């Protein structure tokens, strides 16, 4: 894939994945990337974080950027306004669907563990236990902020995302085993190949979430530039007028993109934004 000419028209909205894209390998926004994003925002172009992260994991990114953007969280299931700390919209899997998915997961992926991501009215809504996991669920990241509950409690309350973990398998193989059985009742993706897959309500992807934000801002998809690195970014990369995969991208993300920039450790996002700002 080739780079766009530097004379190409600047996008009217830019969306970026967070982990593996905006953040470097130390989970930091580099100074060069921060300057490029700020120059764009100061010129009047909106910047949207589009991530698998829940709203409560957004504040560290806001602190590093120096401003609070609109956010597409939980792979498109949640629209979060970081500036006002309000959940604008949430698409959930119902308790009935969660129970059906749990039975399916245990049948197709023996030995797996389940967890659910929920949201309240704000990023840290104390009235809502936001990440709940079943006993024995093996976390895919360090220092999880979860509440361990019974399996029944995990799947009885509507959730924006169901997580299925099987550390002995690759995420791609897990999708291959489960996806053919879903019958259109959930969308399935993954943001790490470390034995973790994520299920959302039907039709919910980063593309659907970004489309809601773009509609609020009256920006057509053709005028959006989007950055990503993993399969959960594929719908967003395809819907944007300019889809940019990182140099470190998963092959599925690279194949869906219009071009490939440098890696997240080499300011790949900034190198594209600097064409215009």
Structural class: alpha/beta
Helix count equals 10
For the sheet with most strands, the description reads: 8 strands, mixed
**Helix-residue proportion:** 25-40%
**Could you state the order of secondary-structure elements as H and E?**
EHHEHEEEHEEEHEHEEHEHEHEH
Round the Cα radius of gyration to an integer and report it: 18 Å
The poorly predicted ranges are 1-7
N-to-C CA distance: 23 Å
Shape: globular
Spatial order of strands in the largest sheet:
5-4-3-2-1-12-13-14
Strand content: 15-25%
Mean of residue pLDDT? 94
In total, how many beta strands? 14
Question: How do the helices and strands line up, and which of them pair or pack?
Answer:
Layout: E1 13-16, H1 18-22, H2 31-42, E2 47-50, H3 59-65, E3 70-73, E4 78-81, E5 86-90, H4 95-108, E6 113-117, E7 131-133, E8 147-148, H5 151-156, E9 161-165, H6 171-178, E10 187-189, E11 196-200, H7 206-216, E12 224-228, H8 234-239, E13 242-245, H9 251-256, E14 259-260, H10 268-273
Parallel strand pairs: 1-2, 1-12, 2-3, 7-8, 12-13, 13-14
Antiparallel strand pairs: 3-4, 4-5, 6-7, 6-9, 9-11, 10-11
């Amino acid at each position: 894939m080739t780079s766009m000419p530097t004379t190409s028209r600047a996008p009217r909205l830019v969306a970026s994945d967070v982990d593996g894209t905006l953040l470097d390998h130390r989970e930091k926004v580099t100074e060069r990337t921060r300057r490029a994003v700020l120059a764009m925002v100061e010129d009047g172009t909106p910047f949207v974080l589009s991530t698998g992260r829940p709203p409560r994991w957004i504040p560290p990114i806001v602190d590093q950027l120096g401003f609070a953007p609109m956010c597409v969280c939980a792979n498109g299931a949640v629209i979060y306004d970081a500036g006002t700390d309000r959940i604008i919209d949430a698409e959930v899997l119902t308790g009935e669907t969660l129970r059906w998915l749990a039975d399916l997961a245990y049948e197709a992926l023996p030995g797996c563990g389940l967890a659910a991501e929920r949201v309240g009215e704000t990023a840290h809504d104390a009235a809502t236990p936001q990440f709940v996991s079943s006993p024995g669920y093996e976390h895919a990241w360090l220092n999880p902020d979860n509440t361990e509950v019974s399996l029944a409690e995990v799947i009885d309350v509507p959730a924006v995302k169901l997580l299925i973990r099987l550390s002995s398998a690759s995420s791609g193989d897990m999708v291959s085993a489960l996806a053919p059985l879903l019958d259109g009742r959930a969308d399935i993706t993954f943001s790490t190949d470390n034995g973790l897959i994520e299920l959302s309500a039907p039709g919910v992807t980063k593309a659907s979430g970004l489309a809601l934000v773009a509609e609020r801002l009256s920006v057509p998809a053709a005028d959006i530039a989007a950055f990503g690195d993993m399969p959960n970014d594929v719908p967003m990369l395809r819907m944007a007028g300019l889809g940019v995969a990182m140099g470190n991208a998963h092959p599925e993300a690279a194949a869906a993109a219009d071009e490939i920039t440098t890696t997240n450790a080499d300011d790949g996002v900034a190198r594209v934004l600097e064409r215009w700002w």
